[in-house]
Write a structure and sequence with these properties.
Diphtheria Toxin Repressor, domain 2; 9 helices
Length: about 170
Amino acid sequence: MQDLELSLSKTKRKEQMADLQKLGLQLVNLSEEKLQKIELPPVLFDAITLAKKLTANGAIRRHNQYIGRLMREVDADYIRSELAKSEADSVYTAKLLHSCEKWRERLLDNDGELNLFINEYVVDDISELKSLIRSARREKLLQAQIKNYRKLFKLIRDIIEHSGIEME
């Protein structure tokens, strides 16, 4: 490792350090839940947690440099792969939610869409789905509370998630 570092030009070493610091900043910007899923050394984890609390610009800059220095000691490829997995999960979740919203609106707007939905996904309890659609339509017309509207969304999400069909 030491021989490799000596053979690199100073510019290349600076680029590598800047890349590690940027990777550290990506970790700082992660939510606490996602950060917990990545196995990090305790020192780095504590530094990232502290960075989230800093408010003074100078302190933030110095602390980010410190995180960059700590990043030299960890497997950056592992962290990149974990961040990519996290990003893929976020993209999947966003697609799932958009799909559920579209299906809910389609089911509320048109009775014929129910057959399309049933043909595309495995629906265990069709009567519950029909009942929620009727109730949500009523709520929408009366502009009342949207309890069944939300329940319909949750039911659609559960059906789509359990069907195992890939999101487009």
